[in-house]
Structure formats: C-alpha cells, structure tokens
C-alpha cells in the first residue's frame, strides 16, 4: 500500500495502526513524515509507540479529544473499514481531519475474490475463518461497486481504485475470457482506494 501514499504527504494518520509497521515504512521512506496511529489493542499500541510519532489508544471516532484541531495530509485505513459496524461514520469523522487537498487511502477485501466465491458456491456454505476474506472479525463485506458507493455517500470522490493481491489461474482466465471479462473483479483479493473529500 506504500505506493498509494504520495511522498508529499508529511502528516499522516493511520487508523488501526497495529504495531506500527506500515507507519514505520512511511517514516523510513521520508524522514520528514510525521505519522500518528490509532489502535484499540494495548499490546499492539505499545509496539507502535516505539516507531510512530504519536499513538492514540482507542477506536477512531469523531469526538476524540486527542485529534481536536488536528489536520492530516493523509488518513490511512489499511484492512480496517471491514472491521467496523459503521465504516461510513469513520469516513465522515475523517473528513474534518483532512487538509483541503488531503487524501484517504484504504485497502478493503473483496468478497467476490474467486477462491472465496468458488468455495461458497461449491460448498453452499459460508464458513468464517481465522484470516482472509471471511475473517471472523469482519463485520462488513464489500465489492468494487459497494466500496465506491460507501466513499461517495460519505462525501468522497474515489480518484483511484486498483485491484491488488491478484489471483491468476488458467481456468479462471479462460472462463473470464469467454465471459468477456465480466468477472474481472473476481481476480482481486482486495482493492486499494485513494479518495478525496468532496466540497
């Protein structure tokens, strides 16, 4: 996801920063970058505090006193929005903490990912797992269209959306070819989103 964060973004907020690994990459890439993190898990937050400029413990919400008056060039949601009951509220909360040309960067799992979709159709079952698309901590599930709708309805324009973690298997490629690429989105495990607030 590093490639989706412009090098010009010098003040960055990562929501759900975990142990701070991604934020550290941002700081290693640009020594001037200031990276803040928000993390509800205390053990992960302890680790993140060692590598980020500031770590706020808790769940991201609009009324966090630690963020009062703070503006960021970029807010990152890497594999986070699907864990939230109201991801639209998180995106709305982010709007007031973005600079005028600030960006939201997000990676979001794709429920139409072919191996997952195939397994559901084949077994006629929806079985949660410890990780992956059907992670048992996921509260929301998305497709490319529903991701774009989520951002649009939360006051953002999606300026870029790329499929990542590509599935490539000759049988899938053949079926997709005969279907005139109508299931092209099924080849991606996630979508990387770059969005700018409207207005």
Largest sheet: 7 strands, mixed
CATH class: Alpha Beta
Mean pLDDT value:
95
Low-pLDDT stretches are none
Morphology:
globular
**What is the rounded Rg?**
18 Å
Total discrete domains? 1
CATH topology label: Rossmann fold
Number of helices: 6
Helix share bin: 25-40%
- Residue fraction in strands: 25-35%
Number of strands: 7
What is the CATH superfamily label?
Vaccinia Virus protein VP39
Proper CATH architecture: 3-Layer(aba) Sandwich
- Could you tell me how far the N terminus lies from the C terminus, measured between alpha carbons in angstroms? 26 Å
Strand order of the largest sheet: 3-2-1-4-5-7-6
Structural class: alpha/beta
Oligomer designation: single chain
Order of helices and strands: EHEHEEHEHHEHE
Architecture overview:
With 199 residues, this protein is an alpha/beta fold. The protein has a single domain, classed as Vaccinia Virus protein VP39 (Rossmann fold). Helix content is 27%, strand content 28%. It has six helices and seven strands; from the N terminus they run βαβαββαβααβαβ. It has a seven-stranded mixed beta sheet, sandwiched between helices. The longest helix is centred in the middle third of the chain and has 10 residues.
Concise structural overview:
The chain is of the alpha/beta class and 199 residues long. It has six helices and seven strands; from the N terminus they run βαβαββαβααβαβ.
């Amino acid at each position: 996801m590093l490639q989706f964060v412009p090098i010009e973004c010098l003040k960055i907020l990562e929501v759900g920063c975990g142990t701070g690994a991604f934020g550290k990459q941002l700081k290693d890439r640009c020594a001037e970058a200031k990276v803040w993190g928000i993390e509800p898990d205390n053990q992960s937050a302890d680790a993140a505090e060692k590598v980020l400029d500031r770590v706020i413990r808790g769940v991201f919400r609009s009324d966090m006193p630690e963020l009062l008056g703070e503006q960021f060039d970029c807010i990152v949601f890497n594999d986070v929005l699907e864990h939230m009951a109201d991801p639209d509220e998180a995106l709305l909360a982010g709007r007031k903490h973005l600079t005028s040309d600030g960006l939201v960067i997000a990676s979001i799992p794709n429920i139409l990912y072919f191996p997952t979709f195939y397994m559901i159709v084949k077994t006629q079952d929806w079985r949660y797992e410890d990780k992956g698309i059907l992670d048992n901590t996921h509260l929301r599930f998305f497709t490319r269209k529903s991701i774009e709708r989520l951002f649009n309805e939360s006051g953002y324009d999606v300026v870029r959306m790329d499929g990542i973690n590509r599935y490539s298997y000759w049988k899938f490629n053949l079926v997709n070819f005969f279907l005139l690429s109508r299931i092209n989105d099924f080849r991606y495990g996630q979508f990387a989103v770059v969005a700018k607030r409207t207005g």
